[in-house]
Amino acid sequence: MMKCVQFNDEKMYIEDFLAISKKLYQQDHTENPNEIKKLLRGTHPLSHYFKLNKFLIYQNDRVAGRFVITIYPDDSTAYIGFFECVNNMEAAAYLFDQAYQFAKKQGLARIVGPVDASFWIKYRLKINMFKGVPYTGEPYNKDYYYKLFLDNEYQVVEHYTSNVFGTVGNEYENEKYHQRYLDFLKKGYQIQSVDMSEFEMKLKELYQLLTELYSDFPIYKHVSEEDFIELFRDYKKIMNPQMVKFAYYQNQLVGFFISVPNYHNLVYHLNLFGILKLLKQKRHPKEYVMLYMGVDQSHKGLGKALAYSIMMELRSSHLPSIGALARDGKVTQNYAEDLIECRYEYVLLEKKIL
Questions:
Q1: Does residue 123 share a domain with residue 42?
Q2: Residues 12 and 154 in one domain
Q3: I need a surface site. Which of 10, 105, 142, 152 has the fewest CB within 10 A?
Q4: What is the pLDDT of residues 93-148, one digit of tens each?
Q5: What confidence score (pLDDT) does residue 274 get?
Q6: Residue 174 burial (CB count, 10 A)
Q7: Mean per-residue pLDDT for 61-74?
């Protein structure tokens, strides 16, 4: 027997909401329970931007699935996120139908997902290469979820890839990127590593440029500078400064490249042992994840110069890397093609409400 429960902040339901993901993932669990609790209780820094409608699916009195429908003011789209479901077609069909009926009653035009509340938190569905522990920042899910979405009449509307790059050897050189780097330095550009003692000031600079560059992305929602800084302040704890590059022209930030060591899912489970392990991996990383990159559109070609500065850091450390989550059609998707070994793939899906 199936049952759908919509809840608010009841402790029992929050525990069930978290328990199903722990049960499904075990070692490859990527959920931050503290952040989830804040979102479910409406105390997260971004909670004032949206309304979360929270649901649990029970099958024979056992939790079989969960989802949240996020609604924004003046937006006709329902965003389905925090999706988890057992590998059961009946349970999945019931879950998706409940989501559809709820969104329809709200008078919304379509459902898009997976989106965990916000562009700034987590979105996209992983569709290939499920062996191994997920990399830091990776949207992660069970391998059968893609089929569940497609079977329930969702269609792919956006596609993304993460490139896996091999180790940059001492002999490696990319003449085109090297020349682009030299050309921009001659023009008066400065490409420099971030001084972590100035990190919060740098976040303010980054906010201005990043919000301009990302504003045309699907599901993008504006946030205030204050909330942006609150979201990203803790990144300072996991970054190595030489792998964070900012590009300036006439004292104006015009490009950035942000990488972190690949801690896999360790950053989501920080007990005392986990913190010690993280600090060790920060000092001696085995791989880097390139999370964010952007260049002011009036400085075309600067992206390759920034990429070259990161390549040289990787060459000196003899480490491989992952270029994370580039949207199809963006030039960053094909940077350093000669080093790409394989690609992770992700999608964003939607269903029209009739």
A1: yes
A2: yes
A3: 105
A4: 999 999 999 999 999 999 999 999 999 999 999 999 998 889 999 999 999 999 99
A5: 67
A6: 19
A7: 97
CB 306 within 8 A of CB 336: no
Answer whether residue 325 is part of any domain. Answer: no
Angle between helix 175-186 and helix 302-317 axes, rounded to 10 deg: 120
**CB hemisphere CA count around 273 (13 angstroms):** 0
- Per residue in 174-203, pLDDT tens? 899 999 999 999 999 999 999 999 999 999
Residue 96: the pLDDT is 98
According to DSSP H, which parts of the chain are helical? 11-25, 33-41, 89-105, 145-151, 175-186, 199-214, 225-232, 272-283, 302-317
The boundaries of the domain holding residue 180 are: 167-319
Number of domains forming the structure of the chain: 2
Q: Among residues 140, 159, 178, which one ends one of the domains?
A: 159
Query: Is 69 part of any domain?
Result: yes
**Tokens standing for 132?**
């191994």
CATH number of 184's domain: 3.40.630.30
d(CA 122, CA 84): 14
- Are residues 56 and 142 located together in one domain of the fold? yes
Query: Do the beta carbons of residue 139 and residue 129 sit within 8 Å?
Result: no
The CA distance from 260 to 169, in Å, is 20
27 shares its domain with 90:
yes
